[in-house]
# Entry
Amino acid sequence: MKIFKLLSLIQAMAACCVFAQPSELSVQLRTIEENLFSLEIQGSPGVHRIERSDELRADGWAALIPITSDTNLSVQPAGPSAFFRAQAAPAHDVTIFTNALEMLAAGRRYFRDDTFGSERFWGDSLQIHRALAGTNHGGVGPGVSPSTALAVGLKVDVDALPASLQEAIAGGNVDLEDPATTLALLELDSVVGVKGIFE
# Structure
């Protein structure tokens, strides 16, 4: 009887119902806007799965998000009523998920920091460091400004910059047309995928 009343109330209000499994997990539902809700997962061991169903049947649950570490999710019911439940992911899924995250992090580190032994090609053969610096800084040609470097696809890791420099750039107090600024960014190891070796 309680379930019937709950279903009637849910259908009348076009709302959602949430469950948590096991007991240490808790799920909070918040309305973001009409027909859009926020599910907040609390007490998760780190990795969990979210399932949904249009009705309360034991075999009616389908994976909404098979595995995630996110604890704040936006959901949109497909009909006038919807039920959501969260449960801790099985141990083998946690292992797979953790390994995948570690591989992604390692890949980012390799891309960010590893030169793959190409220093001799870029430095000795192409002398790209001299072209980047320009004649005013001991190189050749006009040099490469940050504006030019960004225009051809290079990226700067803002988090690698000191807070004072971040503020100066945001305030327009850094000359982004000066190759000396490019050299400074390289010296701070903030250009993604490019390593500068300074003596």
About this structure: DSSP finds seven helices and seven strands in the chain. The radius of gyration is 27 Å.
